[in-house]
Amino acid sequence: MTDSKYKIVYVTPALYMAGGVERVLTLKANYFADHLGYDITIILTEGKDKPLFYPLSEKIKVINLDIGFEELWTCSFIKKVYVYLKKQCQYKKLLTKTLMRLRPDITISLLRREINFINDIHDGSKKIGELHVNRANYRNFEANDTNIVKILFAKIWMRSLVSKLKHLDQFVVLTNEDKKAWPELKNVIVIPDPLSFIPESNSPLTAKRVIAVGRYHYQKGFDLLLKAWKTIEAQCPDWQLAIFGQGDRNPYQQLAYELGLSHCNLNGPTSNIQDEYNNSSLFVFSSRYEGFGMVLVEAMACGLPVVSYACPCGPRDIVSDGIDGILVEKENIDAMAHQLLLLINDKQKRQAMSLAAQQKAATYHMDQIAVRWQSLFEEVLR
Question: What is the value of pTM for the model shown?
Fold first, then answer.
């Protein structure tokens, strides 16, 4: 079979949100359809009457099964169990019917509710699972939102998930670090996410500004970053910290006030992140955990050296410590401040790292990542 005739189906909840998974899926599907001639169909379960957030090629077919799992968000616990079982049964029936009709060569699950039964659908397609978070934080609970029942449920759920993953034809994770977290599996392969844009220009590294990008959420560690910035602001008062992202900024603004910070800007999301990268001279990544960390690659593509916590998972795969950026012990506030200060005070080092960062980012261009997916498709269909 030649790859130009591949018929591929993606299964994911929705495409109406501005999320990282939605963006990456759209990027890959568009490239496969427009550049490789694949027959691509995306099957959704949510957002039937909502417009797609990211532009999708006209060559791609979208089927919305309109299951409405989002109804579970508003249900009481008892009702949630009943509604879930009912919708899951409906989902299995409709997805089976759809795949039997489409008869794809490959079905790719983004490991949501269909992973529970995808291997039982005998439509003739090879089944691939694609995970966009690391194992430790997949269906994990925050430290302040857990109890013995949730912990027990998580263990039982993970044991069940592993048994399902073993029967996939291939299981794709984003980092080599996360691959090691699945020792029970022999079908794991690493394919990182593709860079979402190729910048038209790069930062001249002249602006005295450090940039961070991400949701205002505990995961992103902006509380840790602000505490580190207190040290930097005291020693380099002519430098600014700019954070861009969605979410509730109020707790972080309050923390900045309590720390007495006057040279940091907590911004909402921006429609032109490339300009913001190019108007900065350093990128800082303060996450407690990640699935990958595409903003690292984006910043590096714009020529920014990065200082990043070596959190699980992503930074260790992306950043070559001391060459295109600096890796810092996770959640170590003093070490983060120290390494930022070193680069702030060493323009020559920033310039050398900038060139290396651009070279590293080039390996994440869509055409490079597509080659790896092509090889995978050829392997499972051999």
Answer: 0.89
